[in-house]
Each structure stands twice: as C-alpha cells, then as structure tokens.
Inverse folding.
C-alpha cells in the first residue's frame, strides 16, 4: 500500500512550506514517526515524521521547492515487497538540488536525490514570472490578495496595493521577497530580458580567485527579509546602560547548587535579566506595544521572545505570559525553548505572538551592540558580556561584576526619555535584586 507524505499546515495562517532537506533517500527503510524530511515556513522550521513504516519509494518534491499545504511530497510503500524498491535506481537529481538546502553541510552524505527527471526539465515558475496583469476583480487579483498576513500587513503599512505587485509564490501569491524587491525599487526579480542570476557570480570573480559559491538557505533568506523590512518600517534609536551585576553574582554563587537540584536547570544571569525586564515592562507598557496603521496597540500579556543562535541561523522562541512566571519559571522556560529550537522541535505557536525581544550576544563576548527590532514589536534589549572590571566606588577602586545593556526602540512611538526611564528601572532592579525571589 502507498502512503502519502504531505506538506502539513504548521499554523493557522500558514499556507505553504519549503522542503529544506530530505533525511531519507528513495529505497531506504523508514519507521513510523521517524523524521523523514525537514521543512521551513514563515514561522518555524520543523522535522516531519513518517506517517507509516515501510520504504520511501518516491520523492515528488525536491529540496528548495516551496509548495502549498497538503501537497504530496513523497510516498511510502508499506508492502513487504517494497524492499524491491531499494534495488531500483534512484531518480536523477535536479541540477540545483545540491545547492538548495541550508543544512546540507551538516550531513552531506544523507542528502537525497529529490526529484524525477521530468520535474528537472520543467521550467521553474519563479525563474521567469509573467508580467503583472491588470487587477480588476480577476482571479489573479483575488489570489494575490491571499498572501500571508505578514505580507498584507507590510503592504498596509507601506500603503501599497498588493494586487499591483508581481507574485512568484504559489498560484501567483505575493511573497515577502516579492514585496521587498519590488516596493524597495528593485523591480520584478527576473524577466526574459534580464540576465540570468547564475551569471552574476562569474562576472564578479577574477581569474585565479579562490572562491566558494553557496546559495542562501531558506532560513537565511527569511532572516534577511525580516531584518530589511524592520529597518525600513521603524525609526531605530539605541541607548546603552552599564549595569553592576555584583549583587546578582553573589546570589548566583550562594544559590546555584540548590537551584539546580530543585529546578533541574542552571542559574544563569539571563533569568535575572528577564525578571527585571518584566517588571520594567509592567511600569512602561508602551515598550510592550505595537503599531497597526494609525493605532497603537497596548499588549496586556508580556510575551518575551528570547533569541537563540543556531548553527544554521537564528530563531526567537517566545515565553508566553512571562508576567505570570517567577524567576525559576523563566529559567526553565528559556532552557526548554532553546533546547527544542536546536533540534527543530518547536511548535509554530511557540515562535509567534512575541511582544518584546531579548537577544544575548554577550555569551560570545560582545560588549554591546545595536540589535534590530523584531517586528511588529517596538523595542529590543541586547545583553552584553558580563565580566569583572575595575569600578570607582566612594573614591576607591573596586573589582565589580559589570555588563552593558542596549535598548533598541522605535522612535516613531517611544521617546528617548521613556526608553531611558525603562532602562533605569531594569538597571535598578538588577543592582538591588531581592534574593528572596530566587
């Protein structure tokens, strides 16, 4: 019996997904619920389990291809004689298959041969899109307006009629890349009169130059689009505060063993920073708001996004209702989300709905930085490295545990005075942290 592997709907607003990497080749045996491929959507990357035990008999959608939900990606043969499939020659790979998956470098020997020869010969719909057509209630217009909520919001904020844009997504939908490339003046991404993109690197190379060409992966493209859109939407301003963590460091040393034994996680500096941030967000609710058109939306729930660095990019899982958690609850939630992010086990709702983001490049030694706001939020907190430094105290030089915090905020809504008062409260809370809260 043939069992179909389909593109799942990873969230209510998600209508399509990209095949990042097949974890099995045609002819290989698979167990039920064993990860069989990786996909990427606008919200989250995920491993898709096999719906049945058997042999992967066919891969219909190759790596790097974006398709609608419920599209058949491949088939699994559950019959005993499916073992014969292992002896059959694998389908010929598409010319671009080896370049498609961002995670291919992690396990090159497992990369499958993703598509049948017929699929390789077919023209790629995104390579030569048709010119825009007049939109007057036509089917094309209705399809384009069914783009993702993110694209519709971006178009609304930029006062752009989405039906006038040229879409390269499923059935002509306008994607984020379409919006950014066309609205920012780059025009349609490729036409019959444009030079082929593949020829561009050759022009840039000099004879004898040692180079390596590696296409951007799905996650890296999405991060790029999101960052550019944020810089375009928000008036970024940054302010920096030096924080004395000596009191926090003393609490950590006194309670770290009992804390780990009681809660099962290490007592790092980050939960203290999260707790101080929550208290400051309660006092300055505009820092926890967002903008929608001409309206300022105050969020009553504090949903803290905590950026997690991955080998293949960056993701921001969200601690929902952080205002209801104590320091131990924040510590456990942070560890849990980070661990599952690194093994691609996050659910779509766990990377949505953030109201304020914290990023911690200090773990890599950075003193401070100027982080980009995570849209549609209005502010982001950057944590610098925490280390012992010389500090002047009461006409004397002392050794203190110090670090910098950077606040990036949207100056369209948040004034510098408000952002600095917010940061002053974060600083005060950390420098006089109540040990009874641990």
């Amino acid at each position: 019996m043939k069992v179909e592997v389909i593109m799942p709907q990873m969230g209510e607003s998600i209508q399509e997904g990209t095949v990042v990497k097949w974890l099995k080749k045609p002819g290989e045996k698979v167990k039920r619920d064993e990860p069989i491929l990786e996909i990427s959507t606008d919200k989250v990357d995920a491993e898709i389990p096999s719906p049945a035990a058997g042999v992967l008999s066919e891969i219909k959608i190759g790596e790097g291809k974006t398709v609608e939900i419920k599209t058949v990606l491949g088939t699994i043969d559950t019959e005993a004689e499916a073992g014969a499939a292992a002896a059959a020659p694998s389908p010929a790979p598409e010319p671009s298959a080896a370049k498609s998956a961002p995670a291919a470098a992690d396990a090159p020997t497992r990369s499958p041969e993703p598509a049948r020869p017929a699929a390789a010969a077919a023209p790629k719909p995104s390579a030569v899109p048709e010119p825009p057509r007049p939109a007057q209630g036509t089917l094309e217009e209705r399809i384009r307006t069914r783009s993702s909520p993110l694209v519709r919001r971006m178009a609304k904020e930029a006062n752009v009629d989405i039906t006038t844009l040229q879409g390269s997504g499923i059935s002509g939908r306008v994607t984020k890349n379409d919006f950014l490339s066309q609205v920012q003046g780059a025009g349609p991404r490729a036409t019959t009169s444009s030079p082929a993109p593949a020829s561009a690197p050759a022009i840039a190379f000099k004879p004898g130059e040692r180079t390596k060409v590696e296409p951007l992966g799905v996650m890296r493209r999405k991060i790029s689009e999101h960052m550019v859109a944020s810089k375009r939407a928000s008036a970024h301003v940054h302010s920096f505060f030096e924080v004395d963590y000596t009191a926090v460091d003393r609490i950590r040393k006194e309670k770290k063993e009992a804390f780990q034994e009681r809660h099962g996680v290490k007592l790092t500096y980050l939960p203290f920073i999260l707790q101080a941030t929550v208290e400051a967000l309660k006092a300055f609710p505009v820092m926890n708001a967002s903008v929608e058109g001409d309206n300022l939306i105050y969020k009553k729930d504090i949903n803290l996004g905590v950026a997690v660095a991955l080998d293949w990019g960056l993701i921001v899982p969200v601690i929902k209702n952080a205002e209801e958690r104590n320091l131990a609850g924040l510590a456990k939630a942070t560890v849990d989300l980070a661990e599952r992010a690194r093994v691609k086990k996050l659910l779509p709702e766990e990377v949505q709905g953030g109201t304020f983001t914290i990023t911690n490049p200090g773990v890599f030694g950075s003193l401070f930085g100027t982080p980009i706001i995570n849209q549609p939020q209005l502010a982001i907190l950057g944590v610098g490295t925490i280390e012992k430094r010389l500090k002047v105290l009461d006409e004397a030089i002392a050794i203190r545990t110090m670090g910098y915090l950077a606040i990036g905020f949207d100056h369209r809504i948040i004034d510098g005075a408000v952002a600095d008062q917010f940061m002053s409260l974060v600083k005060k809370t950390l420098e006089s942290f109540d040990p009874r809260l641990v």
Notes: Residues 194 and 200 are 11 Å apart (CA to CA). Residues 80-140, 185-200 have pLDDT under 50 and may be disordered. The longest helix spans residues 246-263.
